[in-house]
Amino acid sequence: MIKNEEYALADTVQMKKPHACQKNNWEIMRLGADIRLKCLGCGRTIMMPRAEFNRKLKKVLTKANDPVNKKKEFYLPKENLRRPNF
After folding, report:
1. What does the alpha-carbon distance between residue 36 and residue 24 come to, in Å, rounded to a whole number?
2. CATH code assigned at 15
3. Can you tell me the mean pLDDT for 62-75?
4. Which of 12, 40, 55, 57 could bridge across to 62 with cysteines, CB 3.0–4.6 Å?
């Protein structure tokens, strides 16, 4: 089981089972009691409880703050992500 501290907002993760579009990579869009994920194959977003997400998560593929990601075309630093002010 992967701990909560090992993933963060805008990380790319791999789930145990693929989506209906046969892609297995997801981007974390929202963290809280529920977690919003965006499929990197078809673009569909889903929400699931954190406990279910922790159970279905296989591994973290890329971290949002990883310097290797700066070479990617659509890289957006974590500091530039919009976050609600509660």
Report:
1. 15
2. 2.40.10
3. 65
4. 12
Do 73 and 21 form a contact (C-beta atoms < 8 A)? no
Distance of CA 39 to the CA centre of its chain: 9
pLDDT the model gives residue 52: 93
Asked if the structure places residue 55 within a domain, the reply is yes
CB environment 16-51: b (16+ within 10 A), e (fewer): eeebeeeebbbbbeebeeebbbbbbeeeeeeeeeee
Question: Is residue 77 a part of any domain in this protein?
Answer: no
State how far the Cα of 57 lies from the Cα of 17, in Å rounded to an integer.
9
